[in-house]
Write a structure and sequence with these properties.
elongated; TIM Barrel; eight-stranded parallel barrel; single chain; 20 strands; 41% helix; alpha/beta
């Protein structure tokens, strides 16, 4: 009987448990890489395989999960691993799966290329069953699926993702979406989840899946034995075998056709699971588990989004958050900007890597007390995934549904000994994560904005990243200030290439010293030397008049390529910004119709 026939029979296929953590727990083995033991201690690896098979596993994985080594060593590890696993499985009539973890990109190879090169060696050793596991994304999977289908049409490919209890991978991607995309691939035979989460959390997650969306492909679930804890100097998983087995049996009854164990699971866990699975098989109806009801949708009140979608030109104004706990001056500035005609007030998230009042808390205060749409900046720099989700849920509760997602300015060099950056992902991955929250407990979606640096020397790369951001969920972009003809040309190119809304950046330069600082110490800003010279010798009032003239001119120049303007307030000079808005909203420098977005 081949594996497809077995799975069609309705009986769950039981895999082995963890090779890595079980091997590491053996005396004297914590310093030796597990995969290298295929060469240095083949007898121990064979004994672990046999222990899982004797426990009742009908399928085992080769000891080849981590191939992050030079290719010559990786080939030797694969060949030895295949020979050990095949010899162990033969007396039991068990299937052997070539085991691949997240693809190593050593040597400049992309994930798809790395997988295909590894698969070629496995096929040469006679293996036709593959599991690609603990994946944070689907990178490389389509290429591997095509390769196997071409080289070995009878090959069986199982693709398994690693998701946290909230249903997202460490890349910020929705596991539900990843499963559905992988299942839709022609060369993929099964999809599933493994690692990161314990058995109960994965059980709850699959109970919320619509299994009919998996294109008829079997679902695999291989959880950890629980969650790790440190005992002395050793990491241990304290999830007991009986509890694990009970949860795994429930997982099978909830629709999983392939089950097994990941980190912390031992032959004892698999033996108890085999006993629990000896019960009569679940009726076929269990394979159509109903998805858990999503959060009830609430009316999406978002004035900024509505204006942009209606074709109304908008003005968003950035106001720096206070560096102390005195918010009165800041809120007075917000109200002045609102009264001058601002459609949104944006608040930076600890600009230049310096601590300031939290942009999200200020956004909630702005919406409650000033009645203007806030647009808080959220960086990847200072929060992990859990903190980010908690913050976004709080913003949504407060009715804040516009966010600007950026990577974040680096921490100043002199502070790095005491202040550390926290990066779970970059801005594109953060956008994918926020976009996916609609399927994970968020009743009103966020309108996501990104940053676009029109002053970048390699603007083609910036456009490439912006297109990735749009694919990840960005609805629009706020640009860096446009002070030069080159920046304006880049903005026009962005208008042609991008689908999202564009708010053109305007930064009023208020002095010669300010111009020099912007040119030399602020990333992403470029002021022409001719403009810098025009500020030489000017007093404050004269410089402000020049700032007004240049800012209005720049705004009108970029109007044909934008859906609105993004004004940055220098040194809390809200009166200057109000004058600029007055000129723009009054239609000076041209005939301007705010509704039609045209001059």
């Amino acid at each position: 009987m081949n594996i497809r026939e077995y799975l069609a029979g309705g009986r769950p296929l039981l895999f082995d448990g963890a090779m890595g953590t079980y091997y590491a727990a053996r005396p004297g083995r914590t310093e030796i890489p597990c995969e290298q033991a295929n060469l240095s201690a083949p007898g121990e690896i064979a004994a672990i395989h046999r222990a899982y098979l004797e426990a009742g596993a009908r399928a085992i994985r080769t000891n080849t999960f981590d191939l992050g080594m030079d290719w010559g060593a990786a080939e030797a590890v694969i060949r030895a691993g295949c020979a050990i696993a095949r010899a162990a499985a033969e007396p039991f009539g068990a299937w052997v799966f070539a085991d691949l973890g997240p693809a190593s990109q050593a040597g400049g190879m992309d994930p798809g290329g790395a997988y295909c090169r590894q698969a070629e060696v496995f096929l040469a050793q006679g293996l036709t069953h593959f599991i690609v596991e603990t994946l944070p994304s689907g990178e490389g999977v389509p290429e591997l699926a095509r390769y196997l289908k071409e080289r070995c049409p009878q090959a069986f490919l199982l693709v398994s993702f690693a998701a946290a209890p909230d249903g997202f991978t460490r890349e910020g991607l929705s596991a539900r979406a990843l499963l559905e995309r992988a299942a839709a691939l022609d060369g993929v035979d099964g999809v599933g989840l493994n690692c990161v989460s314990g058995p109960r959390h994965l059980l709850e997650f699959i109970r919320g899946l619509d299994l009919t969306a998996l294109s008829g492909k079997p679902l695999s679930v291989m959880p950890n034995a629980g969650y790790p804890t440190v005992l002395g100097r050793r990491v241990a998983y304290q999830g007991g075998p009986d509890y694990f087995a009970g949860q795994l049996a429930e997982t099978a009854r909830s629709g999983a056709a392939i089950i097994g164990g990941c980190c912390g699971t031992t032959p004892d866990h698999i033996a108890r699971a085999a006993q629990a699975l000896a019960e009569p098989p679940a009726p076929p109806a269990a394979l159509s588990a109903k998805p858990r009801a999503r959060a009830e949708a609430r009316p999406a009140q978002n004035r900024l989004r509505d204006k942009l979608e209606a074709g109304t030109r908008v003005i968003a104004v950035e106001l720096d958050p206070p560096a102390d706990d005195n918010v009165d001056s800041f809120m007075a500035g917000v109200r002045a900007l609102r009264d001058a005609g601002a459609d949104a007030v944006t608040v930076a998230d600890c600009p230049v890597g310096r601590p300031r009042a939290d942009s999200s808390l200020l956004a909630c205060k702005i919406r409650r007390e000033a009645g203007v749409e806030p647009l808080p900046h959220l960086t990847c720099r200072d929060r992990n995934l859990n903190a980010t989700k908690a913050l976004l849920l709080g913003l949504s509760m407060e009715g804040v549904h516009n966010v600007l997602l950026v990577t974040g300015d680096p921490i100043p060099t002199q502070d790095r000994d005491e202040v550390k950056s926290v990066f779970n992902f970059n801005s594109r991955k953060l956008m994918r994560y926020v976009s996916g929250l609609a399927d994970h407990g968020l009743s009103v979606p966020f309108q996501i904005f990104g940053a676009l640096n029109v002053n970048a020397p390699n603007f083609a790369k910036q456009l490439e990243l912006a297109l990735e951001k749009e694919e990840a969920g960005a609805a629009g972009f706020l640009t860096q200030p446009v002070h030069s003809p080159r920046a304006l040309e880049n903005l026009a190119l962005a208008r042609h290439k991008l689908k999202g809304k564009l708010l053109g950046g305007v930064f009023p330069i208020v002095s010669h010293r300010n111009a020099l600082f912007l040119n030399n110490e602020v990333a992403g800003v470029s002021v022409p030397e001719e403009t810098v010279r025009r500020y030489e010798g000017l007093g404050r009032e004269e410089a402000e008049e020049l700032a007004l003239e240049l800012s209005v001119r720049a705004a009108w120049d970029m109007a044909p390529f934008t859906d609105g303007w993004y004004l940055m307030t220098p040194f809390r000079r809200t009166a200057l910004i109000a004058r600029i808005m007055g000129r723009l909203l009054g239609g000076e420098e041209g005939v301007f119709d705010k509704k039609s977005n045209n001059m």
